[in-house]
Design goal:
Elements: H1 3-6, E1 9-10, H2 12-19, H3 22-25, E2 36-40, H4 41-45, E3 52-57, E4 60-68, E5 70-74, E6 77-81, E7 85-89, E8 95-97, E9 103-110, E10 138-140, H5 143-163, H6 168-183, H7 195-211, H8 218-225, H9 229-240, H10 244-262, H11 267-273, H12 279-290, H13 294-303
Parallel strand pairs: 1-3
Antiparallel strand pairs: 2-9, 3-8, 4-7, 4-9, 5-6, 5-8, 7-10
């Protein structure tokens, strides 16, 4: 069975159909395509019918909070965005959130292909760290920048509400302007000026994202980066405060949680999918980070 059959990568319409009230959703977001949408955060949140377990999306998602707060787990970390703050969930990144947040603001989602246009080059999104899986997803805006971001979201929503996607160039232009405003206040997860060490750490995190099923050893990633395991250990620990082993373990657990949430695979099959022939070892590792066994975790999802 192909990996895409085991882990569902939700497009916009599939995600909203599964976790929201589709008929009511039509009144607040005219989802004409899986490449882009924008709506008010409070309108979207009130339609979420149940907690969203570990999932992935085909598009980047961006939340901007003007009142209250939004709580979301992105990768292995939980973030809370308050007034004048933003959360970015890069395409393919694991995320989850509960119901019940009280907030106002805006949310938009966009596919990489949607950003391509007259004034945009290929892989434009790679120029902005907050759209990369290793970037800082939690952005705190100053008052001035927040005002600019608010105006951009208002313009995006007005165009989307009144004209749909008739002029894609407008969206591309305003999204690019939005990214540039965010970039002006963006703070990397590491404030270190050790540029070589930061580069190695970011490459390491990106490699984990794409190789976690097959590679579990620090030496595997050191080899891919053409450095020694000891160098990788020291570098990653210095920049992030966490060892490479912990980063690898957390990525394995995130992958396992997606499989437990979205597939009918047995626990032993999930264990095999994340690269462990020894199910008992996988169970111990899972419980170490989640405090429950994989079976208990899955039961908790079914109950909720």
């Amino acid at each position: 069975m192909a990996d895409t059959d085991k882990i569902k990568l939700y497009n916009t319409r599939a995600f909203t159909s599964k976790f929201m009230q589709p008929e009511e959703l039509k009144t607040i977001a005219k989802i004409e395509t899986d490449n882009f949408f924008v709506t008010r955060l409070e309108e979207m949140y009130k339609l979420v019918t149940r907690p969203v377990p570990a999932s992935r999306s085909t598009i980047h998602n961006c939340l901007y909070v003007t009142e209250g707060e939004a709580v979301m787990k992105i990768g292995s970390e939980q973030y809370t965005a308050a007034k004048d703050e933003m959360l970015f969930v890069p395409a393919g990144q694991v995320f989850s959130f509960q119901t019940g947040d009280v907030n106002k603001g805006y949310i938009t989602g966009f596919h990489n292909d949607f950003l391509l246009g007259k004034f945009a080059k290929n892989d434009l999104w790679k120029e902005f760290e907050f759209l990369r899986v290793w970037g800082n997803p939690h952005i705190k805006l100053d008052v001035k920048t927040s005002g600019f971001v608010l105006n951009l979201f208002q313009r995006l929503l007005f165009e989307y509400t009144h004209h749909g996607l008739k002029n894609q160039l407008i969206y591309q232009t305003y999204l690019h302007a939005l990214f540039c405003e965010v970039q002006s206040v963006y703070e990397p997860l590491s404030g270190s000026n050790q540029f070589a060490a930061v580069h190695i750490t970011n490459r390491f995190k990106e490699l984990i994202f794409s190789n976690i099923k097959a590679r579990h050893l620090v030496s595997d990633y050191a080899s891919l980066l053409h450095i020694s395991p000891n160098h990788l250990n020291k570098t990653v620990k210095t920049i992030t405060g966490k060892s490479p082993t912990k980063w690898i373990d957390e990525a394995i657990i995130s992958e396992a949680k997606v499989l437990l949430c979205q597939s009918a695979l047995s626990i032993s099959e999930v264990s095999m999918e994340v690269g462990f022939e020894d199910q008992s070892y996988f169970t111990r590792l899972f419980k170490k980070y989640e405090t429950v066994t994989p079976s208990e975790f899955r039961k908790g999802i079914e109950i909720s």
